Amino acid sequence: MKILLTGRNGQVGYELERSLQGLGTVVALERSRLDLADLDQLRAVIRAEQPQLIVNPAAYTAVDKAESEPQLAYRINAEAPALMAEEAKRLGAALVHYSTDYVFPGSEATARAEGDATGPLNVYGASKLAGEQAIAAAGIPHLIFRTSWVYGMRGKNFLLTMLRLAREREREELRIVDDQHGAPTWSRTIADSTALVLAQAQAGGPDWWRQHGGLYHLSSQGQTTWFGFTQAILEEAGIACRLQPITTADYPLPAPRPQYSVLSSAKLTRQLCQLPHWRAALRLCMSG
């Protein structure tokens, strides 16, 4: 099987290039060779490579910047996935795509299931939801994995930012938001879970996609706040730094965030694969 992987140098794309190796020939492309903002290039690459599977972790993820760049966010997060689905249909290929907890408003303190009503609070979340809807409407074999609070030991993410700030401001106090709830999810958890599911799909053939394709939540078990996540990060790193819990209102940003964006991954764990607790995954990530 030929697999076309976008976003090779991204957090999830980097891990996927490793995880997907046993499933076929992986053509992994970085942004310089496949820029999702360039739809003509995207179409040309898919037609040149003719993959049996497209895996798309690439996205516009600058949540605050998206408020002032909505057209770019929608092109990358909605129009590009729609084009991938269109080209996949033409090739008879399948598509794996990643979305976000930010498709939900986060107004209720209960874990969200796949069928729960969406209602994004910001441009980023709205653009990702539009991408989901375009893929689902295309009528192709597909998997959409919604995930949350993605981190890893490369790229730009909350984990690396907190480690840097704690080391730079060792004698200062870090003020961290403590009223937004979610589940930190290691990029390797996402990649390895994807590979496990795709191995089942490969064994099951077309019937598998008809029975199991669609939308899943792929997020670590448990939940915490950004403050709790920071405490755990510094504990694992052995860094002593004073932390001060604050509210969302104390740290205003251009894009509003959901207060409670915990995803229920019960459907995925019941049907396809198990997921670790966020704290256990963090320990594994930082021990490497």
Descriptive overview:
With 288 residues, the protein is an alpha/beta fold. The chain contains ten helices and twelve strands. The strands form four sheets. It has a six-stranded parallel beta sheet, sandwiched between helices. A two-stranded parallel sheet has the order 6-9. Strands 7-12 form a two-stranded parallel ribbon. The longest helix is centred in the N-terminal third of the chain and has 22 residues, at 70-91.
- Beta content: 15-25%
Task: Please summarize the sheet with the most strands.
Answer: 6 strands, parallel
Uncertain runs are none
Helix content: 40-55%
Report the radius of gyration as a whole number of Å: 19 Å
What's the total number of strands? Answer: 12
Order of helices and strands: EHEHEHEHEEHEEEHHEEHEHH
Shape: globular
Mean pLDDT: 95
